[in-house]
Design brief:
The chain has 144 residues and is of the alpha+beta class. The chain is built from five helices and six strands; from the N terminus they run ααβααββββαβ. The protein has two domains: 89 residues, Orthogonal Bundle (Arc Repressor Mutant, subunit A), CATH 1.10.10; 55 residues, Ferric-uptake regulator, C-terminal dimerisarion domain (Dna Ligase, domain 1). Helix content is 44%, strand content 19%. Bound molecules: zinc ion. The site of zinc ion (ZN) has 8 residues, from loops.
Length: 144
């Protein structure tokens, strides 16, 4: 379980204790890498494993994971807040259709272009490009 070890290392190197809820949450997020998890799913999972986990501590842990770029928060139209695993993935951006709510991962091409433009225009490099674009997909876009 290399990934889990890497992530645990990230936590400890950021001076975080590996508490049981944190470890479970980490595992859950890893096991559901390709899913966009709702807060309720996370909460249900933790409540099933542990006798009592309060909402605020789940929130805090999710915030921590966000800050460490382990997960990203997406605000999906009609669906609400979702958490998506992004750690060790090169592309950290999503584009989401405001009409149908469909979310897609951005391609690396776009990522590279944004990175080049950021460097070109602002002299800025090694940015963490965690971006979410909201707009309309080709099926939903309204003709002008
Ligand atoms: Zn759409």
């Amino acid at each position: 379980m290399k990934k889990h070890k890497d992530l645990t290392h990230i936590l400890t190197s950021n001076k975080m204790r590996i508490t049981t809820p944190r470890r479970l949450l980490l595992q859950y997020v890893l096991d559901n890498k390709n899913k966009q998890l709702s807060f309720k799913e996370v909460q249900d999972f933790l409540n099933e494993k542990l006798a009592s986990v309060d909402r605020s501590s789940i929130y805090r842990n999710l915030e921590t994971f966000k800050r460490l770029d382990i997960i990203q928060e997406l605000n999906l139209p009609k669906v609400g807040k979702r958490f998506q695993y992004v750690f060790d993935r090169k592309v950290h951006h999503f584009y989401i259709c405001k009409a149908c709510g469909k979310s897609n991962k951005g391609k690396e091409d776009l990522f590279n272009k944004i990175e080049a433009a950021l460097k070109d225009i602002h002299g800025f490099s090694k940015a963490n490009l965690s971006l979410v674009f909201y707009g309309y997909c080709s099926k939903c876009v309204r003709p002008l």
